[in-house]
Amino acid sequence: MVNENVIRDKSFEFALRIVKLSRFLQSEKREFVISKQVLRSGTAIGALVREAEHAESKADFIHKMAIAQKEANETAYWLELLHQSGYVDKKGFDSMIGEQAEIAKILASIILTAKKRMVNGE
């Protein structure tokens, strides 16, 4: 499925940005707690997408993608908190939250399609 390659690439690129953000927060802003939270949730998205590639069943695939979606939602929370608390400027926030929203939409579409296929016995 084409969407799975798109989500794989986008979630990996996003994870790289999150790693760089975490590094910046720790070295430049001396912020360690939230930076670790956003690092964990932001990189988990891609890891779960990769796990889903080798799901044991359609239900397992949907479950892993749903957890990735939850991690994307959690990442949005940490990004909003970092922005509102002044650790991330508006430009950086807008860019990252836009990417996060795109990933969340793709995940929602993949989950919906997979559920429909499972119900239809495909």
Key structural traits:
0% strand, 122 residues, mainly alpha, 4 helices, de novo design (two linked rop proteins)
> Radius of gyration, rounded?
15 Å
Q: Helix count?
A: 4
Quaternary state, please? Answer: single chain
How many domain modules?
Answer: 1
Sheet having the most strands? none
The CATH class label is: Mainly Alpha
Q: Which structural category fits the helices and strands?
A: mainly alpha
**Number of DSSP strand runs:** 0
CATH topology: de novo design (two linked rop proteins)
Regions with pLDDT < 50 over 5+ consecutive residues? none
List the helices and strands and how they pair.
Elements: H1 2-27, H2 33-52, H3 58-84, H4 90-119
Helix pairs in contact: 1-2, 1-4, 2-3, 3-4
Description:
- The chain is mostly helical.
- It has a single domain, classed as Up-down Bundle (de novo design (two linked rop proteins)), CATH 1.20.1440.
- 84% of the residues lie in helices and 0% in strands.
- The chain contains four helices and no strands.
- The chain has helices at 2-27, 33-52, 58-84, 90-119.
- The longest helix is centred in the last third of the chain and has 30 residues, at 90-119.
- The chain is elongated, with a radius of gyration of 15 Å.
